[in-house]
Amino acid sequence: MLTANDRILIAASVDGSLDPRQHERLHLLLKQSSDARRLQRALRRERSKIAELPQHSAPASVLPAVMARIAEVEPWSTLPSVSRVPQKRRLLPFAVAASVAMLAGLGVWYGVQANQHRGLAQAQVQSLPHVEPTEPMILDVSPEVVSRIPLFDYPDDVVVVDPEVAPVPRVAPDRPREVYGAPFIPLPKLDAVQVKLPLLAEFQDLNRDEVKKRLTLELSKSPTVRVDLFSRDPLKAAELLIATGRATGVHVIIDRVAQERLRRRIPTTWLLYSESLTPEEITTWLLRLAAADAKPATANPTQTVYQSLHIPGTSSHDAKDLKDLLGIEQRKLKTTKANPAKPLSDGTLAEISSSLQKDKSAILVSYLPQKSRVNPNYSRDIKAWLDRRGDRKPGTVALEVILH
Amino acid sequence: MNSVDRRLIDETLSGQSAAYGELVRRYQDRLFNAILRVVDRPEDAADVMQDAFVNAYLNLRSFHGDSEFYTWLYRIAFNAAISWRRKQRSRVSLQSSGMELAEPADTRRDSRPGEAMERREDEDKLEASMARLSDDHRQVLVLKDLEGMKYDEIAEILEVPIGTVRSRLHRARLELHDLLTDEPSEIHEGEGSTLPERC
Question: How far, in whole angstroms, is CA B148 from its chain's centroid?
């Protein structure tokens, strides 16, 4: 029968925690006792079994949930530093002592200065010459004396000048002076310049024919289009956008973090990106969106989710955003390599048609706050969208919708 | 601290939250397995792990790189897990929990029919026995055998001397052996050991 000490000794041997003396004891014990040998074998076997226990993967929801939660906290710059709080507390007595010492120093300095001033004043008074006091002067202000004081000094004599003897200088008559200026250059004829104004429209005006035409025209002007949608509630607006997109036949892929933010109702500015829609299809989507938005609010227009639409044109910032958010280069948009001047062989035609986008798809990701952004390399949904991306069909535009 | 972790932490502190996402991705599976053996239920382990990652993010400025990032992270997670366990005190086995765990990939080949089933039964028995261990013994076994950590790392995480880690580990092995063989445990904390604690 093994004692408690023997058992501990054997357990320690399994982890190699014995010194030479204990090792010798163990060796003797193992030689004498079959129970000891059996226990050592069992403990080693159990250690191996623990190490071989099946490894489980963390649930897929952990990463998006953590990212969503840290996106809710304030940015680093405004967060209080945890390590600095105790440091401040440690410095508090020193700060108080320093303040007291400074006040004491100021008091001493003020006292010394005051004494010096007092001494200087006394020295100045003492250095003044001694003057005997005299009788005070009394002014005579009787009416008689005051009335004799002349008010003005008049000249005693007037001198008359003879013009013959001393002629008066003549004053030149006034003449118009010469004015100098730039030589007259005839102005060139001015031409009328047409200024390109970005489209800004009320969302509920999209049903009007002229706005609809203008919208399609604006969407057709450039191969890359940015549309800003302003809403009263970006969460409801995103849901409506997704629903109407799907109703229009667009496969809208939502990034996992965006899904989590939608589910948790976290205020977010969204970005929707697509390369597989023509301007007409985008117009149809937006009109359907406007109609769906207006439906429950026909009685009260202020209850609509969407407010206005703005097409400002794209800039280098948009290209950077797309690179950051989706990992794509806007300037290097994939286009079909077919040359219309050359006839296509059957193989080339088949290759091109197979590489073209197979369906209309769009990806929705969170745009702002900055911390909610996802690295595209780590998002399965963005990768899934990139896999479906394919080459662009003719007539499609790169659409970037920012939903505020 | 390894250079990848250092870079990711620096990027996180400079405001790039995606870098923190990479840190989470690097350690989430490892941490999940460790926490799962402490709190038993997968959904609890996921919750504890989320809290741990968020707390680590909030306190990232106070991490000066004196130890490995995962050691620091484990300490936060283990403290959260122990607090959780003390609150719950509900020892529900893995099999009875609501969350479905994905079946881990098994690369071992079975030499005879039924061996896989027997092995699965052994694993279930081992996990059930580990769940019955005291908190101190369970933690030290998970960190040593499952995580393969060194004594000094375990000591840092559990905030105890290395000698205590050793003695706890020896007792934990014996307690687990007794549970597996249905024998009454003869070793209790603080008694029966004459081995000096080597630090």
Answer: 10
Answer yes or no: do A79 and B58 touch at CB < 8 A.
Answer: yes
Q: How is residue A200 written in tokens?
A: 């800004």
pLDDT band of B82, cuts 50, 70, 90: confident
ipTM, 2 dp = 0.74
Count of A–B CB contacts within 8 Å?
161
Beta bridge partners of A397: A277
Residue in A59, A70, A373 nearest the CB of B57: A70
pLDDT at B97: 47
Residues of A in contact with B31 (CB under 8 A): 58
Using CB atoms, which residue from A67, A73, A372 is nearest to B58? Answer: A73
Q: Which residue of B has its CA nearest to A52?
A: B146
Assess A53–B contact: CB distance below 8 Å, yes or no: yes
CA–CA distance, B161 with A81 (Å, rounded to integer): 29
Nearest to A309 by CA among A197, A200, A198: A200
Disruptive mutation site among A66, A85, A88, A326 for chain B (greatest number of B CBs within 10 Å): A66
CB neighbourhood size of A250 (10 A): 22
Got the DSSP string for B59-108?
A: TGGG--SSS-HHHHHHHHHHHHHHHHHHHH-----GGGSSSPPPPPP--P
Cα dist from A43 to A10, A39, A132, A323, B189, whole Å: 9, 6, 119, 56, 19
pLDDT in tens, A204-228: 888 888 888 888 888 888 888 999 9
Contact call for B126 and A374, based on CB within 8 A: no
Q: Do A54 and B176 touch (CB under 8 A)?
A: no
Q: How far apart are CA B180 and CA A46, in angstroms?
A: 9
**pTM for the whole structure:** 0.43
Q: How many CB atoms lie within 10 A of CB B130?
A: 23
The residue to which tokens 């003897």 are assigned: A165
DSSP letters for A103-141: HHHHHHHHHHHHHHHHHHHHHHHHHSPP----PPP----
User: Helices marked H in A154-307 — which ranges?
Assistant: 209-220, 234-247, 256-263, 279-294
Q: Which residues of A touch B148 (CB under 8 A)?
A: 51
Distance separating alpha carbons of residues B126 and B147, to the nearest angstrom: 16
pLDDT per position as a tens digit, A110-119:
888 877 766 6
| Nearest Cα residue in chain A from B48 | A62
- Dihedral, CA of residue B187, residue B190, residue B194 and residue B199, to nearest 10: 120
Binary contact (A15, B166; C-beta < 8 A): yes
